[in-house]
């Protein structure tokens, strides 16, 4: 479900050259995971000493460079994010009516209701849910649980701004969400999207902290079958 901010660090990331081949986290931060995904995206995950225990950062790159950065807490709350081009920072408003809870999701289902604010003046209310489907999948050797989700984001007048529904994956040990087959509507109708992970890369492995995505970046897709390392596990696996 998709998650206190050091603005200087974020702005430093925004100045990284698009051709850079390796991501370096800000000082005081340690990278722990790189994820190459469908949809021409690579995500680098890291944690920072100055943050609250359990907080995690993610920096997303496409072929042009970094375009999105976010921080979540241990419960998967959207604490803050930074869109690029133009730079817009979004933060979670205090006092959520029903905060997102990864802990509740691990029990089967999590409903949430909270508000977000952007530094361009936009404000919105988010309502939705995440629920375990009972299915698990193995992707690149990592077992992930599948979740179903549905959420809508409305402006202060109650008008729908954005909404999405579909499936994601979670890793209970890492307390992270990963995109899956879904639909996204920005007011022009639902459109399909699949940003499922393809490769998980750890420290010391080739491609760790890469900034160039590998999959579905060209008109002709990679000859590597995206599902060659993906198998469905028993429905009750890891539940």
Tell me what the structure shows.
With 239 residues, this protein is mostly beta strands. The chain has one domain (7-233). The chain is 5% helix and 49% strand. It is built from 2 helices and 14 strands. The chain has helices at 7-14, 102-106; strands spanning 29-37, 41-48, 56-62, 65-72, 80-83, 88-92, 109-118, 123-139, 142-154, 160-171, 176-185, 191-194, 197-201, 230-233. Strands 1, 2, 3, 4, 5, 6, 7, 8, 9, 10, 11, 12, 13 and 14 form a 14-stranded antiparallel beta sheet that branches. The protein is globular and about 50 Å long. The two termini are 19 Å apart. Residues 2-20 and 219-239 have low confidence and may be disordered. Residues 1-20 form the signal peptide. Keywords: Signal.
How do you describe this structure in short?
The chain is mainly β and 239 residues long. Helices cover 5% and strands 49% of the residues.
Sheet with most strands: 14 strands, antiparallel
SSE-based structural type: mainly beta
Question: How many β-strand runs?
Answer: 14
Determine the strand fraction and express it as a percent band: over 45%
Helix content: under 10%
> Into how many domains do the coordinates divide?
1
Mean pLDDT metric: 86
Uncertain residue ranges: 2-20, 219-239
The topology string of helices and strands comes to HEEEEEEHEEEEEEEE
Kindly, what is the distance between the CA atoms of the first and last residues, rounded to a whole number of angstroms?
19 Å
Oligomer: single chain
User: What characteristic shape results from the CA principal axes?
Assistant: globular
Radius of gyration: 17 Å
What is the tally of helical segments? 2
């Amino acid at each position: 479900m998709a998650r206190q901010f050091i603005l200087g660090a974020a702005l430093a990331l925004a100045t990284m050259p698009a051709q850079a081949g390796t991501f370096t986290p800000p000082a005081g931060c340690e990278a722990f995971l790189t994820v190459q995904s469908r949809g021409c995206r690579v995500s680098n995950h890291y944690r920072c000493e100055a943050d609250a225990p359990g907080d995690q950062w993610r920096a997303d790159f496409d072929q042009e460079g970094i375009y999105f950065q976010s921080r979540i807490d241990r419960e998967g709350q959207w604490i803050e994010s930074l869109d690029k081009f133009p730079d817009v920072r979004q933060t979670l408003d205090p006092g959520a009516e029903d905060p997102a809870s990864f802990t509740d999701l691990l029990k089967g289902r999590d409903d949430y209701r909270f508000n977000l604010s952007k530094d361009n003046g936009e404000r919105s209310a988010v309502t939705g849910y995440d629920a375990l489907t009972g299915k698990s999948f193995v992707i690149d050797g990592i077992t992930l649980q599948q979740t179903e989700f549905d959420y809508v984001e409305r402006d202060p007048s109650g008008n729908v701004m954005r909404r999405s529904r579909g499936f994601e994956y979670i890793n209970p040990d890492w307390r992270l969400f990963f995109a899956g087959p879904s639909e996204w509507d920005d007011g022009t109708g639902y459109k399909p999207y699949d940003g499922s992970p393809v490769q998980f890369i750890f420290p010391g492995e080739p491609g760790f902290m890469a900034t160039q995505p590998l999959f579905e970046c060209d008109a002709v897709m990679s000859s590597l079958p995206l599902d060659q390392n993906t198998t469905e596990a028993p429905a009750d696996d890891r539940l």
